[in-house]
From TrEMBL, chain A:
It holds the Pfam family ABC_tran. Residues 5-240 form the ABC transporter domain. PANTHER family: ENERGY-COUPLING FACTOR TRANSPORTER ATP-BINDING PROTEIN ECFA1 (PTHR43553:SF24), HEAVY METAL TRANSPORTER (PTHR43553). It comes from the Bacteria. It is a peripheral membrane protein. Belongs to the ABC transporter superfamily. The keyword Transport applies. Keywords: ATP-binding, Cell membrane, Membrane, Nucleotide-binding, Translocase, Transport. It is found in: Cell membrane. Coiled coil: none annotated. This is Energy-coupling factor ABC transporter ATP-binding protein. The gene is ecfA_2.
Automatic annotation (TrEMBL), chain B:
The chain crosses the membrane at residues 73-91, 111-129. The gene is ecfT. It is a multi-pass membrane protein. One of its GO terms (molecular function) is transmembrane transporter activity. The lineage of its organism: Bacteria, Bacillati, Bacillota, Bacilli, Lactobacillales. This is Energy-coupling factor transporter transmembrane protein EcfT.
Length: 279, 265
């Protein structure tokens, strides 16, 4: 597998904060086509990490490279073309006065001619299933729809990587589901690399690999199965358990013997009905 | 509160006036305010009045909206008319008391001033009622473009304008929410004397300012992440199209000017 993002010994400190660095000696590699989730509780440095990848923040020490390029002042705009970012607050990242204007905003910045923009906007809106909303204003959209517009704006730019900086944290469960399922589709269609920073454990369960951050450091790394099978010790790290794990825990408390390995929701269903049949 | 404000409101529709190019509407509206000062007798005011009513008719917007547009300026209009009526001398004197006198010219001038006000308000209300704010800002950008020569930041101004317009509804919602949240904690926004009322606004304004700055920060980050580097080398997705009907509307104004010059005393 070909690495696409490479962080080496990154340290970052916010101005005026001398006590603790927001990121301490973070190194990580993301492979092409991978869905990587970064989890950790508030203030663990997840969002700071995301912003160092496309040069919104410059690390104190260490190096960042995206694709074949090292992140520096010369390359930063080329790297931003490769990395699309969706932020947390759906209201505050909506630049255009209507949906189609917002989707076109990134393309306008790149100087793409209008004849090319029109079909690309259309295609991107079809992708996020918002074709009927093309001329609507942001005030008339729900939070989930606004995040889908933000994703369309990224898709229209044809990036290699999408970073989701807690993109679903302000949405209701329904909007969250919509956004995640659309992201899965888009990732397959355009062969994207996805880096999702999240609180939501169920969103992280979709990933190929999970990184756990705590107080500016990477403390754990593994597939969802590996991470979640740690069970209750995850709670000590300040994280939630995914639903099947919580169910397992509850069954255990009631004296049922459960498998030690991590089960997805489908795995849990299978295990449940087979174990009931055996009785 | 927001529903009573007609000035600057847009009523969606699909009439001939709605479909005109915003540049044509903006320029002709300003031009109308210019030529209204040419009118100086009954015939010329009658012509302009009929023209305005015809435009209102074409826009297919309910006439009540225009009347409500006049309402906030009613006191200014009455004050000006009163001054004109009371202090203009000449012609037959109807009534006199100290420095005040009501004369034939005074009454005539008062009526003219009244017509002038109402026509200007009708025309500018017509502009905002039939043009989406966004198109208006596009039109302003186009008209300001020649100022690039003197290094006037046209692109920045137009981006500023469109972001401001985009955030108006968002900030309105936010204001409403903060007001309700403060009401829930006992703040009364409508009671007390002037000073108490002003003090009650503080728990509304401070959070609103803070949140606006936070929004601005987030928006700037999001714009930068999407490759925004300023106006240079940027293309535009929204473009305005000048049609034949726009040329026609400009021609109508040319005829109107000629007719006005012919009619004026």
């Amino acid at each position: 597998m070909e690495p696409i993002i490479n962080l080496k010994n990154i340290t970052f400190r916010y101005q005026g904060e001398q006590t603790r660095a927001a990121l301490q000696d973070v190194s990580l590699t993301v492979n092409k086509g991978e869905w990587m989730a970064i989890i950790g509780h508030n203030g663990s440095g997840k969002s700071t990490l995301a912003k160092t990848i496309n040069g919104l923040l410059l690390p104190e020490t260490g190096s960042v490279s995206v694709g074949q390029l090292d992140l520096n002042e010369e390359n930063v705009w080329t790297i931003r073309k490769m990395v699309g970012m969706v932020f947390q607050n759906p209201d505050n990242q909506f630049v255009g006065a209507t949906v189609e204007d917002d989707v076109a905003f990134g393309m306008e910045n790149q100087g793409i001619p209008r004849e090319e923009m029109i079909p690309r906007v259309k295609e991107a809106l079809e992708q996020v299933k918002l074709t009927d909303f093309a001329s609507k204003e942001p005030a008339r959209l729900s939070g989930g729809q606004k995040q889908r517009v933000a994703i369309a704006g990224v898709v229209a730019l044809r990036p290699d990587i999408i970073i989701l900086d807690e993109a679903t944290s302000m949405l209701d469960p329904e909007g969250r589901q919509e956004v995640i399922s659309i992201l899965k589709e888009i990732k397959e269609k355009y062969q994207l690399t996805v880096l999702s920073i999240t609180h939501d454990i169920d969103e992280a369960a979709n990933a190929n690999r999970i990184l756990v951050m705590r107080e500016g450091r990477l403390v754990d790394e593994g597939t969802p199965a590996e991470i979640f099978s740690e069970g209750p010790s995850l709670v000590e790290k300040g994280l939630d358990l995914p639903f099947p794990e919580r169910l397992k825990q509850a069954l255990k408390d009631r004296g049922v013997t459960v498998p030690e390995t991590y089960l997805t929701e489908e795995g849990m269903v299978d295990w449940l009905w087979t174990s009931i049949l055996n009785k | 509160m927001m529903n009573k404000l007609i000035l600057g409101r847009y009523i969606p529709g699909n009439s001939l006036i709605h479909r005109l190019d915003p540049r044509a509407k903006l320029l002709t509206s300003f031009y109308f305010i210019g030529i209204i000062f040419f009118a100086n007798n009954w015939q010329s005011y009658l012509l302009l009045g009929l023209f305005t009513l015809f435009c209102v008719y074409l826009s297919k917007v309910d006439f009540g909206f225009f009347l409500r547009g006049v309402r906030p300026l009613l006191w200014l209009i009455l004050f000006t008319v009163a001054l004109q009526v009371l202090f203009t001398s000449g012609g037959e004197v109807y009534w006199e008391w100290g420095v005040f006198q009501i004369t034939e010219f005074g009454v005539q001038n008062g009526i003219f001033i009244f017509c002038r006000f109402v026509l200007i308000i009708f025309m500018s209300t017509l502009l905002t009622l039939t043009t989406p704010p966004l198109e208006l800002s596009d039109a302003i950008e186009f008209i300001l473009r020649p100022l690039n020569v003197i290094h006037f930041p046209v692109h920045e101004i137009s981006l500023m304008l469109s972001i401001a317009l985009r955030f108006v509804p968002t900030l309105m919602d936010e204001t409403e929410k903060i007001m309700n949240a403060q009401r829930a904690r006992g703040v009364d926004f409508s009671e007390g004397n002037l000073i108490q009322k002003m003090k009650a606004v503080i728990p509304l304004l401070i959070p609103l300012f803070v949140s606006s700055f936070n929004r601005a920060d987030d928006l700037a980050t999001a714009m930068e992440a999407r490759g925004y580097q300023g106006g240079e080398g940027r293309t535009k997705y929204r473009v305005l199209h000048w049609h034949k009907k726009d040329t026609v509307s400009v021609c109508v104004y040319a005829f109107l000017t000629v007719a006005l010059i012919y009619l004026r005393a």
